[in-house]
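re: the backbone from monday

yeah here it is again, tokenized this time
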């Protein structure tokens, strides 16, 4: 399949999924809100994770960054889609977040943070910082000394990106339950973003223009490291909540570990940790184009399933077709936008032919 054919397929899938989501928005807005939020949070990890990896590579160097740089830039180029993707949730925020309802918010001790004016201000800051950093990165990559230009503001960019992404994930998903608190939640989500972006970019590179075996092995090792980091942080959060045994914190896990959501949690553990971890222990898999592609598929699928697992249980309803439609719509359009990146003026000329 050529890039153009893949782009057409992505536009088609995204259009069908978005049309189904719009029908759900009209017929069942309360159901649509959680479905769309799950899709949006999964998608957001792609451009933000790509930006973070670009900055990290500018500071550390290594063959892995050059091997997937075109894919990282194309993923970062999808960031403007966040703005229109947020609009459907504007009128449905109270259906998502109980703390926006007067009868709930009045009894919270963290009203200084969980209030609508402050939330709007934070969202504006997030968008300004993210779009500004992306513009600076693209500008630096157009220069002849692109590596040095990117490295000059990468330290500050990483700090700003980490802070804003941390608070954004807290606002988007952790505050679905205003009683739940976790000091490690932001780190869990940051590592998940980096792993998702790396998996998508590695999969795209392995399919379109596979790097040499040594570069593949470096990417496999980096992927293994991020898998272990995410699993460790996620387990630490679970362990702390289990040891504390506080009802308002245990409830967050209880609704996500019982019934069908318990099976989903097991599937996330398998696809997002166990299978990739044991596969990537073998150097033969790390150096194999097919092996890395398969591992990347598992990680991408695990990230999507995890997005549903984080958001949909908060609605109190079972998983449904609208959840699938919203996810296909958002990710399909984002994929088509990334595949379109080679002909967009925003992409540096030197990278267009490689995407």
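seq for it, each position gets an aa:
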């Amino acid at each position: 399949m050529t890039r153009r054919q893949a782009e057409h397929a992505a536009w088609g899938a995204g259009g069908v999924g978005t049309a189904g989501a719009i029908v759900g928005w009209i017929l069942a807005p309360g159901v649509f809100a959680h479905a769309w939020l799950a899709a949006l949070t999964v998608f957001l990890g792609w451009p933000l994770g790509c930006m973070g990896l670009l900055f990290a590579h500018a500071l550390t160097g290594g063959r892995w960054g050059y091997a997937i740089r075109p894919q990282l830039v194309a993923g970062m180029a999808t960031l403007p889609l966040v703005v229109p993707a947020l609009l459907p949730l504007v009128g449905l925020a109270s259906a998502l977040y109980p703390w926006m309802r007067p009868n709930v918010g009045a009894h919270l001790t963290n009203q200084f943070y969980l209030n609508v004016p402050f939330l709007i201000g934070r969202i504006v800051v997030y968008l300004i910082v993210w779009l500004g950093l992306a513009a600076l990165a693209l500008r630096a990559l157009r220069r002849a000394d692109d590596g040095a230009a990117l490295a000059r503001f990468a330290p500050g960019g990483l700090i700003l990106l980490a802070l804003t992404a941390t608070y954004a994930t807290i606002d988007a998903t952790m505050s679905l339950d205003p009683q739940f608190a976790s000091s490690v939640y932001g780190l869990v989500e940051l590592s998940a973003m980096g792993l998702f972006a790396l998996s998508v970019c590695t999969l795209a590179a392995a399919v379109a223009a596979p790097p040499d075996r040594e570069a593949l092995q470096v990417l496999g090792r980096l992927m293994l490291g991020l898998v272990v980091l995410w699993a460790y942080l996620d387990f630490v959060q679970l362990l702390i909540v289990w040891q504390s045994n506080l009802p308002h914190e245990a409830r967050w896990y209880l609704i996500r570990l019982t019934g069908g959501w318990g099976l989903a949690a097991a599937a996330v553990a398998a696809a997002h940790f166990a299978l990739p971890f044991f596969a990537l222990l073998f150097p033969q898999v790390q150096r194999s184009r097919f092996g890395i592609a398969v591992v990347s598929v598992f990680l991408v699928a695990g990230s999507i399933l995890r997005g549903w697992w984080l958001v949909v249980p908060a609605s109190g309803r079972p998983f449904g077709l609208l959840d699938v439609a919203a996810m296909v719509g958002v990710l399909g359009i984002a994929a088509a936008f990334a595949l379109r990146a080679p002909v967009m003026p925003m992409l540096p000329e030197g990278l267009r032919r490689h995407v």
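Residues 3-352 form one domain. The chain has 17 helices and no strands.
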